[in-house]
Write a structure and sequence with these properties.
single chain, alpha/beta, Rossmann fold, six-stranded parallel β-sheet, about 20% strand
């Protein structure tokens, strides 16, 4: 497996290589976001792990650039796992075209789960609430009834 890591933080590289390092896994580290597309062109990776903040071109811009080059036929599709600094960055990750994202701090278990999901053709999206089975507009709410977390519905009046 070939993985590109794009970050300018050595601790991020250390965390990723410690969690994902194994026989047959090779890492290419880019400390500038601008060089990721060149590395993809030289040797198409199985996955790109992009830090949200990378010098002059962050993970969102790199992901969008990869998707633009892919749509024009210049580069093949490369699955992207974005590393977010905070929950507030979720909207950026969703719009970038990344297959997944993790919110820092990182840990081995979550990194492995995300990579497994993305390499299996799926997605890994942290920080989003689970979808409600029924839309809020379809539910009639009785203002006199409240739900207690440990009990069934009780009359509040």
């Amino acid at each position: 497996m070939e993985i590109i890591i794009a970050t300018d933080a050595s601790w991020v590289v250390d965390d990723i290589t410690a969690a994902l390092g194994a026989d047959g896994v090779n890492f290419t580290v880019c400390s500038e976001g601008r060089v990721v597309a060149d590395e993809v062109e030289k040797n198409t990776p199985d996955l790109a792990i992009l830090d949200m903040q990378i010098g002059s071109m962050g993970g969102m811009a790199v992901t969008m650039s990869l998707r633009l080059d892919e749509s024009s036929g210049l580069l093949p599709h490369v699955p992207v796992l974005m590393l977010l600094d905070r929950r507030a960055d979720l909207h950026l990750a969703r719009r970038s075209g990344a297959e997944g994202w993790l919110i820092k701090p990182l840990d081995s278990l979550r990194l492995k789960r995300a990579v497994t999901a993305i390499n299996g053709g799926g997605t890994y999206t942290e920080g989003l609430p689970a979808p409600d089975p029924v839309a809020a507009d379809d539910v009639d709410v009785d203002p006199d009834v409240a739900e207690s977390p440990e009990e069934e519905a009780v009359n509040a009046g």
